[in-house]
């Protein structure tokens, strides 16, 4: 544990952004599951793969006795968690009221200020996720296949430390943007749940069709309305696999290369840290298809079966381990496809197709083509679309606002942390 150095001697005026070694003012990896105070028998576990830029896509649950060996870092509210592995991927999160049994992979570094009254925890988050700090982690990473930054290098890193008053202003400015982004994401989760509620009522419980003539469908193992069909996905959609090639190099400017980590939990596409590639690479990776609004992408490896719909105003190349599904507009609407792919019907079928994999879960393109779709008559689909379309529009409106807010935050972030943009207290 690092020395408990007080920050009072570093509190200057607004223009004083003195740089201080992180190890002198913060605890690095302060708590572990091996501590006597850790008394939980099960854990909430965050892997590097489930962390994005300021967002968590998924949290695993394990009994502590069966948890992965890398489940080591016990985190608390106010901690900053940054991936040391390939730090340029910008996989970091701020822990705001996490579960008491929250644990993260040892591939992360956990940073906690010694004195949170003079060095604000959320300021530490913004200072240690600034472009300058992430570049430092990249430069000091070692290893070829999975370059990572040693803990000793993290301790030696320096961050600018203005007065507590200036820290508060920076946190209020950037935090208000991030809080609005989080609120929009929370609203989208609720809206997604609402549209799924309608889908389940209509197409799983058959609520509006209770008086229909029902017939037993053998392959589904259930009764369905007699005038409904069960059709393979390949009959009503174009299914295109990704290019099987080496991942292209990242560029500062360029075209969007969609990765599995860009796929959110509820059918959303994360756009907070686009992986950009050159025009030449983009032409190569879009030879088969360019993912466009209304298309659904699905991961076939890693987070098997994770799906997202491409929102309005976004196009991109589908990256490694991603398959694009483009609905036939005459037979399958984007609204219906999105909800069907997120529904328990599809979750169960994908689960059955991957259940036989003994070691690594994968989903082959042919199996995606063979996915069964319960297809109601066109008039039923139209009524359903009319109900969920306003919900989807609001979701996309929130996504657009999130994109604009992130652009603003990313512009302000480095200038505020470096002191290039001054903030004046009233």
Name the descriptors.
426 residues; alpha+beta; 4-stranded antiparallel beta sheet; 4-stranded mixed beta sheet; 11 helices; 21% strand; elongated; disordered N terminus
What's the pLDDT, averaged over the residues?
A: 90
Number of distinct beta strands: 23
**Fraction in helix:** 25-40%
Largest sheet: 4 strands, antiparallel
Number of helices: 11
Provide the fold topology:
Elements: E1 18-21, H1 22-25, E2 26-28, E3 42-46, E4 60-63, E5 71-74, E6 80-83, E7 92-94, E8 102-105, E9 108-113, H2 121-128, H3 131-139, E10 141-142, E11 148-149, H4 151-156, E12 158-161, H5 164-203, E13 214-217, E14 222-225, E15 229-232, H6 233-236, E16 237-241, E17 255-258, E18 275-277, H7 279-285, E19 296-299, E20 307-309, E21 317-318, E22 322-327, H8 334-342, H9 344-354, H10 365-369, E23 372-375, H11 378-418
Parallel strand pairs: 3-8, 17-21
Antiparallel strand pairs: 1-12, 2-9, 3-4, 5-8, 6-7, 6-9, 10-11, 13-14, 15-23, 16-22, 17-18, 19-20, 19-22
């Amino acid at each position: 544990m690092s020395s408990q150095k007080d920050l009072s001697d570093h509190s200057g005026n607004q223009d004083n952004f003195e740089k201080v070694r992180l190890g002198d003012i913060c605890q690095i990896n302060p708590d572990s599951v091996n501590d006597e105070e850790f008394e939980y028998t099960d854990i909430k576990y965050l892997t590097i793969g489930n962390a994005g830029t300021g967002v968590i896509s998924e949290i695993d649950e394990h009994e502590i006795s069966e948890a992965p060996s890398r489940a080591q870092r016990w985190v608390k509210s106010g901690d900053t968690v940054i991936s040391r592995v390939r730090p340029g991927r910008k996989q970091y999160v701020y822990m705001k009221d996490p579960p008491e049994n929250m644990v993260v992979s040892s591939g992360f570094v956990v940073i906690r200020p010694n004195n949170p009254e003079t060095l604000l925890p959320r300021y530490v988050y913004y200072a240690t996720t600034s472009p300058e700090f992430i570049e430092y982690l990249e430069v000091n990473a070692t290893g070829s296949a999975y370059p990572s930054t040693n803990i000793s290098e993290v301790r030696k890193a320096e961050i600018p430390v203005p007065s507590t008053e200036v820290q508060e202003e920076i946190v209020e400015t950037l935090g208000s943007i991030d809080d609005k982004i989080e609120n929009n994401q929370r609203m989208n989760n609720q809206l997604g749940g609402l549209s799924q509620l309608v889908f389940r009522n209509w197409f799983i419980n058959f609520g509006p069709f209770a008086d229909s003539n029902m017939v037993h469908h053998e392959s589904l193992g259930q009764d369905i309305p007699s005038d409904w069909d069960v059709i393979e996905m390949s009959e009503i959609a174009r299914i295109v696999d990704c290019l099987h090639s080496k991942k292209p190099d990242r560029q500062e400017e360029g075209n969007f290369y969609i990765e599995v980590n860009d796929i959110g939990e509820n059918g959303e596409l994360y756009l907070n840290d686009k992986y950009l590639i050159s025009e030449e690479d983009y032409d190569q990776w879009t030879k088969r298809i360019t993912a466009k609004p209304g298309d659904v992408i699905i991961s076939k490896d890693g987070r098997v079966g994770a799906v997202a719909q491409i929102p309005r105003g976004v196009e991109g190349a589908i990256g490694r381990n991603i398959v694009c599904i483009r609905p036939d507009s005459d037979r399958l609407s984007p609204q219906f496809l999105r909800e069907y792919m997120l529904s328990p019907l599809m979750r169960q079928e994908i689960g059955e197709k991957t259940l036989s994999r003994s070691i690594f879960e994968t989903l082959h393109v042919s199996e995606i083509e063979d996915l069964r779709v319960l297809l109601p008559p066109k008039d039923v689909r139209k009524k359903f679309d009319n109900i969920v379309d306003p919900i989807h529009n609001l979701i996309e409106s929130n996504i657009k606002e999130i994109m604009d807010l992130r652009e603003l935050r990313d512009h302000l972030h480095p200038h505020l942390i470096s002191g290039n943009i001054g903030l004046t207290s009233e």
